[in-house]
Design goal:
With about 400 residues, the chain is of the alpha/beta class. It folds into two domains: about 170 residues, Flavin prenyltransferase-like (Rossmann fold, 3-Layer(aba) Sandwich); about 210 residues, Rossmann fold. It contains 15 helices and 21 strands. α1 crosses α9 and α4 packs across α6. The longest helix is centred in the last third of the chain and has 14 residues. The radius of gyration is 27 Å and the shape is elongated. The structure holds cytidine-5'-triphosphate (CTP). Cytidine-5'-triphosphate binds next to α13 and β16.
Length: about 400
């Protein structure tokens, strides 16, 4: 990714009437915060002048293998820049070349050089599209992991009717975004997330709390919002700003967190309880600061009462909601998580390994997602990727 904030899609454009839809694909990608760069074949330039794509993308458009004197190995730099390489539209000829490993221009050379996921949106006349060799070539690429956004049936530019019309821009963008991990598969859903620690006052200056940076919960809220959900985040005190597009409520104590959760729980589809809630709170917080000398007794014997278990309370009230809890474990991770799944009444428990170094302030996490139907283990991943894996899990099971 050359642009640190935005994922980059390199779009290969081949010579075909459907090229006019590529402009819309670029526009839709940009709306979703994706940077697009275009490579055109010589034939594509016969349909549209590169100026069109240069204006739309505000990036240079590459055509010839050697036409950027500042970059002697342009196909390699483009191949490395791509988070996804998409070919929109892709003629049967270019599909055939890529299937055979032929690399005789900038586009096909980049296709061979890139290790990024490839998305292809083919377009052709019905007979060319349905030709046995074309089908075989598409199957070969699919078998190699290329995501093929199959053409649709309809009226074709040549006057024929049948399969060969390029897929709609929105469907192509969906396929590209899925490869970028930016799927909108939570569109129309409401997601509630708890995050961070709670703090339970002893007196106006002291409190009991748990260690928690809030990073995991915030990444879950951000992932849900990225994937199209309406998101409510209830967080204890953390040093993180409100995530964009997420309704964030800041609370201090477990009782306040429960209260904020209860206000929203009824309307949500998925509730993820990632907060490190303090299990106990001082029974009667002092209204003035306790002094070491005169109040030594009170400080030495703080009477504690149990906090409500927010996860268990809500899980036992659930109707259609999918309820997810977390469990920080050092030993017997899966067995402990499975016990917690039953005792709390959750649908999933995400068990963190808190080995040496712990998972508390880290930017990555190693988890097992334990559900009624089995477990899924993940390697150590950035917390954003753990969040996506969790939603993949939930949506995949339903
Ligand atoms: N949780 C909660 N309310 C509490 C305590 C915990 O909602 N008062 C939720 C947390 O958000 C998390 C899960 O329950 O999803 C953690 O369960 P907990 O019993 O606290 O597990 P551990 O902290 O791992 O505790 P232990 O292993 O000691 O039981």
């Amino acid at each position: 990714m050359s642009d640190s904030n935005r994922p980059t899609v390199v779009i290969g454009v081949t010579g075909c009437v459907a090229i006019y839809k590529t402009c819309e694909v670029i526009r839709l990608l940009q709306k979703r915060g994706v940077r697009a760069k275009v490579i055109m074949t010589q034939h594509a330039c016969g349909f549209i002048d590169p100026t069109m794509f240069r204006s739309l993308t505000r990036e240079p458009v590459a055509v010839g293998l050697f036409d950027d004197p500042s970059d002697p190995i342009h196909h390699i730099s483009l191949a490395k820049e791509a988070d996804v390489f998409a070919i929109v539209p892709c003629t049967v000829n270019v599909i055939a070349k890529i299937a055979c490993g032929i690399a005789d221009d900038l586009l096909t050379t980049t296709a061979l050089a890139t290790i990024a996921p490839i998305v292809i949106a083919p377009a052709a006349n019905v007979n060319m599209y349905e030709a046995r060799v074309s089908k075989e070539n598409r199957d070969r690429l699919r078998a190699r992991g290329v995501r093929m956004v199959e053409a649709e049936s309809g009226y074709l530019a040549c006057g024929d009717e049948g399969r060969g019309r390029m897929a709609e821009p929105a469907d192509i963008v969906e396929a590209i975004c899925a490869e970028l991990g930016m799927s909108r598969d939570l569109e129309g859903k409401k997601v509630l997330v708890t995050a961070g620690p709670t703090v339970e006052p002893v007196d106006p200056v002291r409190y009991l709390s748990n260690r928690s940076s809030g990073k995991m919960g915030f990444e879950i809220a951000k992932a849900a919002a990225r994937r199209g959900a309406e998101v409510f985040l209830v967080t204890g005190p953390v040093a993180l700003g409100d995530p964009a597009g997420v309704e964030t409520v800041r609370v201090e104590t477990a009782c306040e967190m429960l209260d904020a959760v209860e206000r929203r729980f009824e309307e949500v589809d998925i509730a993820v309880f990632a907060a490190a809630v303090a299990d106990m709170r001082p029974a009667t917080p002092a209204s003035r600061k306790l002094k070491k000398g005169s109040d030594a007794d009170a400080l030495a014997r703080i009477e504690l009462v149990e906090n409500p278990d927010i996860l268990a309370t809500m899980a036992h009230r659930k109707s259609r909601q999918v309820v997810v809890g977390f469990a920080a474990e050092t030993d017997d991770v899966v067995e402990n998580a499975r016990r917690k799944l039953r005792s709390k009444g959750a649908d999933y428990i995400v068990a963190n390994f808190v080995g040496e170094g712990g998972a508390f302030d880290a930017d990555d996490n190693e988890v097992v997602v334990v559900g009624a139907d089995g477990d899924r283990s993940y390697p150590r991943l950035p917390k954003a990727a753990v969040a996506d894996a969790l939603f993949d899990c939930i949506l995949g099971d339903r």
